[in-house]
Inverse folding.
């Protein structure tokens, strides 16, 4: 039986995007975005601080935001929900829940 891949990498014009559950997961500096601008919502995670684990720096405090993708709205009106989380894993998990719930409610 073949295992299902959660992460895939696809080529784009400017490089490669990491795909998770069929949506792009993109990082630029301290900002990580998950979702497609073709959908109504995306999640954005801003790394506010890092901590040392061994010889590596890992995200510590993350500002998590659920954003509307409508670029015609002012930035402050695009923020649907936000919260501060400890660690990338917690932030991403909550962000996925928000994205799923709000995307489902907008389709009804």
């Amino acid at each position: 039986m073949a295992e299902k891949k959660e992460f895939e990498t696809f080529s784009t014009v400017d490089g490669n995007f990491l795909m998770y559950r069929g949506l792009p997961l993109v990082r630029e500096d301290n900002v990580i975005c998950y979702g497609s601008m073709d959908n109504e919502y995306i999640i954005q995670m801003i790394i506010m601080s890092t901590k040392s684990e061994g010889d590596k720096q890992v995200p510590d405090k993350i500002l998590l935001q659920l954003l509307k993708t409508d670029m015609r709205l002012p930035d402050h009106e695009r923020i649907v929900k936000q919260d501060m989380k400890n660690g990338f894993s917690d932030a991403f998990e909550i962000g996925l829940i928000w994205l799923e719930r709000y995307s489902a409610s907008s389709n009804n």
